[in-house]
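Troubleshooting: if your tokenizer reports a length mismatch, compare your output against this known-good record of 353 residues.
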Amino acid sequence: MQLKELRDNIDNIDFQILKLLNERYENALKISKLKDKIEGQNREQEIFEKVKNNSFKLLDASFITDVYKKIITYSRELQSKDLKLIGFQGEHGAYSEEAAITYNREYVPIPFSEFKEIFDNVEKGILDYGIVPVENSIGGAVTEVNDLLLNTNLYIVGEMKIKINHCLLKNKETDYRDLRVVYSHPQALAQCRNFLIRNKLEARPYYNTAGAAKMLASEKPNGAAVIAGKLCAKLYNLEIIKENIEDNYNNITRFVIIAKQPSEKGNKCSIVFSTPHKAGTLFNILKIFAEAKINLTRIESISMIEDKLNYAFFLDFIGNPNDKIIGDTLNKVKKETSMYKFLGCYQESKIKF
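Known-good structure output:
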């Protein structure tokens, strides 16, 4: 092996070590939400014994013990800070994580595979918040998330709108002239279809944009690149070949922040309701808002899982429930619905470019 190749291997190993350390501390923070106090010496001694017993020939026991003393000390420091955890769906570097960081840089983003896991962990108190996409200007409503909002006891306490800017990323050692295939989520590939055709690149679907970036960095397939966000370039040590390769410039995703307790502050509200099977019932509800001169910002319908013949309507509007006009209007709406749920009050978000 050449010197450069050996050094590149060391760089990649260091990168993997950092990722695993970050993952370890994420789990430590989740544990801290489940226990009354940080465990003491018994647990630490158990860890020391395990790592010493599992160490390799080059790893001296005293060296390993010293390393893990530092790791555990820092873990205790993190657990004692009572950091706020916000869950997102996907791998680190996902657009949902970008939205979480933009919403509040003090919160610690924690990745989850499924949307339901986020809702479950917020309800259990392991997460302080969750951030989930509810609609995209191109792809429309995210049905699974809206269904979870309908069937949860959680509240919307914030929102974040971000412009999705797709980038073409490659490994730094790969010559861009050798690129033949591009991996990404099917939706991202579809949103960059014209760019791929112009550059004669084969689109290969992957479960997640950030997951594709993670795969590219670890497996290093020949002649391959990925479509993902700029954050992935930083997290996975990839090079940005070209930014803003999406076909449609106005690609906006709206995320909502969910929590166990509602917020009374804000200038925007969300409700969900269903109406009796009678002609004109939806019109009557919209008429109530119109007569009160309340500005509606969204109305979306989804088929209810329990009754596929019935629909739930998600409605967002400008106002605060403590305002008398808003309160009176919502009381009138309740009387016209067969199911009604107040999802939350929060501050309206401007689009983040």
